[in-house]
Amino acid sequence: MSTEAVFIQVGALAEGFAPHSNTLERQLG
Fold first, then answer.
1. Which DSSP category does 20 fall into?
2. pLDDT of residue 15
3. Distance of CA 27 to the CA centre of its chain
4. What's the pLDDT at 7?
5. Could you please report the per-residue DSSP string of 1-29?
6. Are 21 and 14 in contact (CB under 8 A)?
7. What's residue 12's pLDDT?
8. pLDDT score recorded for residue 27
9. What distances in angstroms separate CA 11 from CA 2, 3, 6, 23, 25, one per listed residue?
């Protein structure tokens, strides 16, 4: 699994777990 795929999955999990928190999404750009 590539690093990009990992970030995509983590982002999806974070979005599902805390949709109101976009901090990580903004940091990762």
1. T
2. 72
3. 10
4. 87
5. --HHHHHHHHHHHHHHH-TT--HHHHHH-
6. yes
7. 82
8. 62
9. 14, 12, 8, 11, 7
Backbone dihedral region for residue 18 (phi beyond 0: left; psi -120 to 50: alpha; all else: beta): beta
Determine phi and psi for 13, rounding to 5 degrees. -65, -45
Contact call for residues 24 and 11 (beta carbons, < 8 A): yes
pTM: 0.42
Read off the amino acid at residue 14.
A
Residues in contact with 7: Cβ distance below 8 Å, sequence separation at least 6, in sequence order: 28
pLDDT in tens, 1-29: 799 999 888 888 877 766 555 566 666 65
